[in-house]
Write a structure and sequence with these properties.
Elements lengths: L1 H17 L2 E2 H12 L7 H13 L3 E8 L6 E7 L1 H12 L8 H9 L6 H29 L5 H30 L11 E2 L2 E2 L21
């Protein structure tokens, strides 16, 4: 749970790096980034925003009122500390950078990093997935006689998904090395079955609770 909160925090920092946003817009953009299978609730977002406010990473820029519901919405923006923290996190290279959720968020903001950082993260992600692929393939060969055909098909589906992402990562790495890849135009790429910042995906309508200071 703590790791998910850290992933949400990185995503919020990255989105607010683009400009001030209110909570509803943040949640909408985060859901697009995390993918349709991992919908983010207000109950997950607001504790993170409160923590970031206490840590002076973000601040309340203004309060707006929606024209339809007349409910107040608090607009958030990055502080100087938040700007530095985002830059620090985006230059970190290590195991957490290529874990599933964190990698998707890092990739969405790849245009903010230099090629060396991008390559190290992509290569780390590919190595992690290749290790996972080798392990699953080994288990698949050992368990085929012990499980029914539906379980086997599910395992094969998982293997094929990882194989596709490994090929995709290899293509990205080759493009980075050849100087052909422009990450600023690839924020809608599908990674591992998850949609990353795909603007064509519509979010289901949701009831919007009022945002008040003290309940972020």
């Amino acid at each position: 749970m703590a790791r998910r909160a850290e992933t949400i925090e990185l995503a919020v920092l990255g989105l607010l790096h683009e400009g001030p946003m209110h909570g509803y817009e943040l949640r909408k953009r985060l859901n697009l980034m995390l993918g349709w299978g991992r919908v983010l609730s207000y109950g997950s977002l607001y504790p993170t925003l409160k923590k970031m406010l206490r840590g002076a990473l973000i601040e309340e820029a203004a309060t707006t009122v929606t024209p339809v519901t007349r409910r107040p919405r608090i607009v958030y923006q990055l502080t100087e500390s938040g700007q530095r923290e985002f830059e620090r996190l985006m230059t970190e290279v290590g195991p957490t950078a290529w874990e599933d959720d964190n990698f998707d968020i890092r990739f969405a903001f790849f245009s903010r990093t230099d090629m060396e950082i991008r390559l190290r993260v992509l290569e780390g992600r590919r190595t992690r997935l290749q290790e996972r692929l080798d392990r699953v393939q080994s288990q698949l060969s050992m368990t085929q006689k012990e499980v029914d055909r539906y379980a086997i098909e599910l395992q094969r589906h998982g293997v094929e998904s990882v194989e596709r992402e490994v090929r995709w990562l290899s293509d990205l790495i080759n493009a980075e090395r050849s100087g052909e890849h422009d990450t600023s135009t690839n924020s809608s790429t599908t990674t591992g079955g998850n949609l990353t910042a795909n603007p064509t995906v519509a979010e289901p309508a949701a009831v919007q609770p009022p945002e008040v200071s003290g309940q972020k």
